[in-house]
Amino acid sequence: MLSPTAGTPQTPTRVLVIDDEPQIVRALVINLKARKYEVDAAHDGATALELAATRHPDVVVLDLGLPDMDGVEVIRGLRGWTRVPILVLSARHSSDEKVEALDAGADDYVTKPFGMDELLARLRAAVRRAEPTGAGEDEVMVETEEFTVDLAAKKVNRGGKDVRLTPTEWHLLEVLVRNTGRLVSQRQLLQEVWGPSYGTETNYLRVYMAQLRRKLEADPSHPRHFVTEPGMGYRFEK
Fold first, then answer.
1. Nearest of 174, 176, 148 to residue 163 by alpha carbon
2. Where are the domains of the chain?
């Protein structure tokens, strides 16, 4: 049994749990509330989207197999207006389905059956990635011919318009930009963006690098700024 105080956040964090299995919802609500999280729960996609709009959660835990719509549709619906971290919870094991969820805008993926310790650790990591950093730490502006990255404001502008990035996309971009011109290894990127327990999930990097290129590169198939060093890692070039 987990300690009720382990992993308790300093300020209340609101979690939206979306799953049609009552026993999983019950277990998550009990464990999250024991750690002082505020919890809302939905058993279908339509209710989930309505709750997200009215309750403004800090993080979403989402099952892909919902009775009224596929979880990927919920992800896309949320990503239409919010960058809230989304942690996918699903019994689907194929890498294609995981990549589809990540590509739609999910931030992480936990396969059922899961350990509560792991799930809570992933949830805390997702929330940390979305938190703004302290004032004065990110007073850096990086400009390229195609886009501008404002690290202080956590904003990217391309062609005079703000580019919407998910928290994970932003964190990956931030690590690369802070190491402009230097090779950042796959392991370093995984551990800095997803957490210390990651190191081999290179498919995550491929998905998110493809998303950054689509959003920011003039020619995503021939990237100028987000350069792959095969088998080693990635490099950001201005």
1. 148
2. 14-130, 141-236
Q: Give domain 141-236's CATH architecture.
A: Orthogonal Bundle (1.10)
Residue 136 has pLDDT above 70, yes or no: no
Cα–Cα dist 72/106, whole Å: 9
**pLDDT tens-digit readout, 175-213:** 999 888 888 889 889 988 888 778 888 999 999 999 999
Q: What CATH number should be reported for the domain whose range is 14-130?
A: 3.40.50.2300
Cα(152)–Cα(132) distance, integer angstroms: 9
Contact 190, 198 (CB under 8 A): yes
Instruction: Give DSSP secondary structure letters for 116-129.
Output: HHHHHHHHHHHHHH
Token pair in block for residue 15: 């979690």
pLDDT of residue 132: 60
What are the tokens at 237? 């070039």
Same fold across 14-130 and 141-236: no
Enter the pTM of the model: 0.66
**Contact status, residue 10 vs residue 56, Cβ threshold 8 Å:** no
